[in-house]
Amino acid sequence: MTADALRQFTTPREGDLGLRQISNKAGLAASLLPNGALFVLDHQGDRGRIMLNQVPGSPVHGGIGRICLRIGGETPGIIELVGPSARVRFGAAADRFVWDGETESVRHRVTLWLSPEESIWLWHVEVTNKGQVVLPCDVILVQDLGLGDRGFVQNNEAYVSQYIDHHVASAPDIGPVIMSRQNLSQGGRFPWAMQSARSSPSTVRSSAMPAKWLAP
After folding, report:
1. Has residue 154 been placed in a domain?
2. What is the pLDDT of residues 169-186, one digit of tens each?
3. How many domains does the chain have?
């Protein structure tokens, strides 16, 4: 093989990906790729950094995490609001990311907001039906969970995921709450996350409290 036939590739480092990042005083941070996909959601604590999602987003084809709007009626369908196939504009402010778009007669806007002081993130989904026919709909949040040091999670995602336990509880004000806990010690502690959702006739919200420490 001649030297001209050789091809070399360099895997980009995180600093080469053109990420936009938001963060808060509690150590929670989210980073977004130029294609609008969420790269990493993580938390910096006194004993290191915990990656909350399991697989970092890809510049080539987004990531696992996404939000979909499921529409019923005579012509049912699914619209991807956040994710690799979402047809949206997106932008960033100091404390939030926004995805905005319109699919046929449905206007949609998604905001990922970080609480200023707490380890809380909030997805806020706004949907407007601009057509003349009533459309039943709901929102599906796809969230992959790692709950561990990034090297630990990315070394073997399947191994890590089998040690995450889940429990569904019911809260009187918001309904079902999904509780997830990493059972392999991360610096002597066990990261956990809680996720829940609230909705109104025109708006669906989901929130989570990640990366607070639970004693063994």
Report:
1. yes
2. 998 888 899 999 999 999
3. 1
